[in-house]
Write a structure and sequence with these properties.
about 450 residues, mainly alpha, 17 helices, transmembrane helix, membrane, transmembrane
Length: about 450
């Protein structure tokens, strides 16, 4: 019974983390589709607070676990720069200060809870995460099926707003699909996983890829492709061709790989319109990427028309142009920066330099450098447990987004970074790595002991 309650607590911690990092899709479903609180920002804040409360351990304040201290310190330093600039160097966003203080309070609370929960959540993070992302994906599908204004070819998202002027945010659903994709692959590659679980996990991989395509999020699709290529490049050379052929052609592997595709083909036979949807979105994605590339190269399309950047890509070009003018026009002003939220670039890394200056930008890039290094190290050597593998690949999924959308003050920007700083580049108890990798680092010191003990 004690073990049951312990595992239930670990699952509760994991659920809280996913609500904070990936709670927007499920929140939109409950608010807009189930009509619990249409267009309510208070509901979203309450749902986020619920996630933080679910992360509360029984040992709160009495016991803390060590994160990647330099990275977490750098992130808190950047948050300090944001607060300092909000009060002392703010000419255009004075009215945002009170609202932003609430956001920063959520970030600090999230960090506090992260260092209060044990690394042992690695045992439950995959199961809880797969179920959570599955619930969000099902919510999206149900919303699309019941939305009279959604038509084939639109980006998949839960729409809200007055009739005729409704809008949605497909990026949060693309992000949810990426999280589900990573966790499903981690589950499928677990050592000694049984056949049914592997089949379910691979089915979830296919489902999440379909959701990702339906969202038509170019940055998410690009980051997923680049992460997959990085994984293949790093890992394919570690395995001999003979071993690859043997593993792929074994009867069990063939059955496991074939069953999800057989089920998918069967679904297409029953519902032929599903294949039409996939081909339409595939052509849209390929055509949009291709035209953007042609536009950047100054070429014409195959029809002879001038290639045009889409709206989001054009905004990025304008942001880079504005930044180049700021650099060439008044380079010295970049040392202190132009002030808190001076200009919305929609490119978080550049906006940190423009608004927070060299010091704030340097602190943020210090954190990015170390997180990137630790993530690539996990990709190269293999993760020591589920949580390390998950956050390493999740960061690689986020890299493109850090250059293509959002602001460095957003919770959606800061919360994942805090998660990476908590679980990347730390020493894990070898017991958490048992059977996970060929040679778990048993020689490393254990830092999963509490930093502070009650006196």
């Amino acid at each position: 019974m004690k073990a049951f309650f312990h595992n239930a607590a670990l699952m509760r911690f994991c659920l809280g983390i996913f609500i904070v990092v990936d709670g927007y899709p499920l929140s939109f479903f409950m608010k807009e589709t189930l009509q619990l609180a249409p267009m309510s920002t208070n509901f979203t804040a309450g749902f986020l607070l619920l996630g933080i409360l679910l992360m509360t351990p029984s040992t709160i304040i009495k016991k803390f676990y060590q994160p990647n201290v330099p990275v977490m310190g750098a992130l808190m330093g950047f948050l300090g720069f944001c607060l300092l600039y909000a009060f002392l160097y703010n000419t255009v966003a004075i009215g945002d200060v009170n609202k932003d203080l609430i956001y920063y309070a959520f970030v600090v609370l999230f960090v506090f809870m992260l260092i209060s929960i044990p690394d042992e959540i690695s045992k439950q993070v995959v199961f809880v995460g797969v179920m959570f992302t599955l619930a969000s994906n099902i919510g999206l599908v149900l919303s699309l099926l019941t939305d009279p204004e959604w038509t084939l070819g639109q980006r998949a998202s839960i729409q809200y707003g007055p009739p005729g002027a409704r809008s949605g945010n497909p990026h949060v659903f693309a992000h949810n699909a990426q999280i589900g994709l990573v966790l499903s692959l981690v589950w499928a590659r677990r050592p000694k996983v049984n056949f049914l679980i592997k089949f379910f996990a691979l089915s979830m991989v296919i489902f999440n890829i379909i959701i990702l395509m339906l969202t038509f999020s170019k940055s998410a699709i690009l980051s997923t492709t680049l992460t997959g290529l990085t994984y293949l490049f790093v890992n394919i050379r570690k395995v001999s061709p003979q071993r690859i052929i043997k593993a792929v052609t074994s009867p069990i592997s063939l059955i496991i790989l074939a069953l999800p595709f057989v089920a998918f083909i069967g679904l297409i036979i029953v519902k032929p319109e599903i294949w039409e949807i996939i081909t339409i979105y595939g052509e849209m994605i390929g055509g949009r990427f291709g035209e953007n590339i042609l536009a950047l190269l100054g070429k014409d399309t195959a029809e002879g028309a001038e290639a045009q950047l889409d709206g989001s890509s054009a905004n990025r070009v304008l942001s880079f142009t504005y930044m180049s003018y700021a650099v060439m026009g008044n380079f010295l002003q970049l040392i202190p920066g132009y002030g808190y939220k001076f200009f919305y670039l929609d490119v978080p890394i550049l906006e940190a330099l423009l608004c927070q200056g060299v010091a704030g930008f340097t602190v943020l890039m210090y954190a990015f450098y170390h997180i990137t290094r630790e993530s690539l190290r996990v990709v190269y050597r293999g993760g020591r447990n589920d949580i390390e593998t998950f956050v390493a690949y999740l960061f690689l999924f986020h890299v493109v987004g850090y250059f293509t959308g959002g602001r460095p003050y957003d919770m959606a920007f800061l919360h994942p970074l805090c998660l990476f700083a908590r679980f990347l580049g730390i020493n894990y108890d070898p017991a958490l790595s048992h059977g996970y990798v060929d040679q778990p680092p048993a020689q490393e010191p254990v830092l999963d002991e509490p930093m502070l003990q009650p006196t």
